[in-house]
Records
---
Amino acid sequence: MNTEEVIKLIINKAYEVRSHFVAGYLESVYKKALLIELREAGLIVEEEVEMPVMYKGHVIGVFRADIVVDKCVIIELKAVAQLLPAHAIQLVNYLSVSGIDNGLLINFGSTERLEIKRKYRVYNPHN
């Protein structure tokens, strides 16, 4: 399965989770449900993946990605009323330190709809 197919499957599974759990649950509920969906779909899924932040050859911190799928997509989950620019920046930072090119910011907390934003490690002015 190529990266685009993986991303499409992740999005479909996020909508499946949202159909069972509307807004109002803790992020951990959505995360556990999405992990089940992704694993049942046959994807290789890692959770709470630690990524060292380096400076001049020294580890100065550690980021923890919510979910990494097939080593090609980082998923950052939120359960907030509205996504903020800081949430997208957080995901782009994870992409930067990991070397993974694609990320999905998924917010289950909006009462109106599931929010999904795709982000890239390499700057793209159109996203």
---
Amino acid sequence: MDTGTVPLSRTIVGIMGSHRDDAPCLDEAALLGEAVARRGHVLLTGGGTGVMRAASEGAARAGGLVIGILPDSRGNSRPGYPNEFVHIPVYTGMGYARNAINAKTPHVIIALSGSWGTLSEIALALNEGMPVISLDAPFVEPSPGAPLYNASSVEEVLELLDRFLPPANSESA
């Protein structure tokens, strides 16, 4: 079967963080979204505002594909959901229960500053044994054997990401 240039399988990186438009890490979220796209990975976020929008914008501007897992049903979305950079909105109608989809779908999660929703996504991902890279978001101290990695810079996050998911293309920058 001819699939053209669309790969049959793509790696997915989730970026999770605050919905607040004044979150202190929006610039980092945009840089990480861009880097994820340039590495050939699909970006998955909660599809909304704040960190989700900044990461989505970075990925979209770099030519990446953005999936947004939305808490509401189609036609019943809160303002900013989905943000304008989401290519594939997934309307769950599940509220915060959609965090399970956010946590179990990606191959790696990058967690930035957030609140209870972000913390629940981290916990669900760690429970599945998924690598979670936390950028200046010390929600919990890693327990022995837990795949939680704390990074203090965007560069350190990207080094860890490349360890778990080598770039799918040669454009990684």
---
Amino acid sequence: MITRRNFVTRMAQGMAASLAWPALQSCKAPFHPVAHLSGPNFKLGHRLRAMNFKAPTAEEQTDVVIIGGGVAGLSAARYLKKSTSTFVLLELGEETGGNAMGGSNSISAYPWGAHYLPLPNDHDAELITFLREANAITGYENNLPVYNEYFLCFDPKERLFINQYWQDGLVPHEGVPEKDRGEIESFLALMHDFKTKKGSDGREAFTIPVEESSQDPELLKWDAITMEEFLRQHHFSSPYLLWYVAYCCADDFGSSLNDTSAWAGIHYFASRKGKSANAASDAVLTWPEGNFWLVKQLRQNLEPNIRTGALAYDVIENAGGVEILYFDDKSQTSRKIKARAVIMATPQFVSQRLLKADRGFDYKTFQYAPWMVANITTTAGLVERKGEPLSWDNVFYGSQSLGYVNALNQRVGMSSPEKVITYYQPLLGADPVTLRTRAYKTTAEEWTTAILNDLTKPHPEIEETIKDVNIWIWGHGMIKPVPNFIWGDHRSRAANPVDNRIFFAHSDLSGISIFEEAFYQGHKAARAVLNIV
């Protein structure tokens, strides 16, 4: 049997640092590779503010309109495709996928956002069915799924640059004092207890989807405080542990210890319980283009239903259902679709602009973390520090960045000297509006300077091998699970349909922006719609 390890030959690497805002950095007069700055279709999207659209010149009718082509929208579309209902999906951008989008160049495909999927929990039947259809699950042995060996992350999986050395794995241990190692072990043991715990209602304390987690008040109380306060209450103070937990919060939520709900923080460690016949429980599925591979599987057979460059700008209820007005960027005309129902697979800050109805919650409670992602192409191998070789995930201790993933990690065959690495930087802070504005104003050259300052610590002279840097700004990259949000009234009210005609599907309705939650929200909305059309 072919194994993942058979495919792997790797080079070596090494070191860590923090990334400040580009304008605040003092830098050596740098060599600058070609840099490009892009992002979602801001120009078209910002027309929602002006609302200077002409009257529709064409009209059509369908059963359902889906607004938004991210994972939730595509999941809903996939579900509807299996029914007899007719539908149209409107996507603002030139490409579907949302924050799971990807790209490619002559060397490799690469992600622009989400880049892996942990093994799903056994009870997540719909997701497991999808993975079987996509051949990510190839069969079963002893009632456990067998995952496609080509999609399981090849070794080496993860490394951390700490104390001038690349260690194996992301939990700090290289050069870490015994007292700190003991504290880390105690924390991980506590998280394991939460992972196996059940609430007074008999449900799992923490699971995916979020909605299926226990409603035991003794567990939900953790949503009222920050992860920082949770660690303090449990007398955890090791700087190595605090860094690691902060890294995890930044990675999954785009938030810091002081603005992440403790419930969400625990959920990160305690919710994933997937099992496999041919992989460890902490294995992940990944592809060169990241979760864009999953997006492409979701939209198979959906192309006739998808319209890109389509900006929905009004949703109007009437006696027969709903009317959706949208601007077609290709023809530069407005169009109208009459439907029996609409699925708003859009984040709430977009839904707010399209709907006139009072939905009974405060839109401002939905906060979104901005991100910067850069795909960096090198013409030669990376100069390495001592320790573990180049891995799929490469993280720098003490850096505000999340490090980078190696897009060529899943390549089978000869290793290429040319590389594409995807560098992730969540823009952390309590005021996402200011951070977002600042990110948009930062130039490609300024971003590149900051990225190089971070990368040159583990990879000396990396700038001499860089061919180009492509930068993407996600102004609203993911929902932030701030305290009192996940189990607060505003999130639950936002999920309620309007007059049983307008339904909602987006990962922000889960409070956590991960593939599984977006997939779940899309299926949930589609099932509800099929009850009325």
---
Amino acid sequence: MEIEVILLGRMSYDLALQIQKKIHREVLQNKRKETLLLVEHTHVFTMGRRTESKNLLHSPEFLDQEGIGLHKIGRGGDITYHGQGQIVGYPIVNLKRINKKTRTYVESMEDVFIRLLRDNFDIDANKDTGKYTGVWVGDRKITAIGVEIKRYVTMHGFAFNVNTDLKYFDWIVPCGLDDRGVTSLEVLTGKRQNMDQLFQMVAKYFCEVFELVPTFRELKDTLEDIE
């Protein structure tokens, strides 16, 4: 089965969400094949369905002064940060067509990054054996995962910390877990990573794990480019 991989480049959360919703409608209507959006966002905090207000440690007014957006969205999970140096992926797929249930879909996304980190960086990343989603190196999360599913079609997805400035996670309780931390590929390897190469690597491993054949395209910067 094919999947269209669309590289959005660096883009605001607002515009990427519009694109994601448009493609989600079209996949629901069987007007578009499975799609993976890959993007690097400008600074934003997103609050999932289970977010508690206490997990945002600064006021919305302060965030606005700092030029950081704040969005309440429909995915699962609590609050997290997106920004430069982080690869965010939005797989928009029909779970029936790719033969996945919700749990196995999330586990497969975790496998993408466990394999990528093991094969290319000799990093021993793992799933949490308890109740927490995502990919962990020790007790620090390197990839966050939160999804929303409507009529078997997925939205939202994953956020992989590559060269992410981790100070912004100090402004929140990431994913509502005050006993866990976050990390990045830059921290673990001790050097800045090439984002273009990592985008390609993420797409490759995603397609391998899900057994999908990719076709690639780039988007300029407008919603109208998605036809």
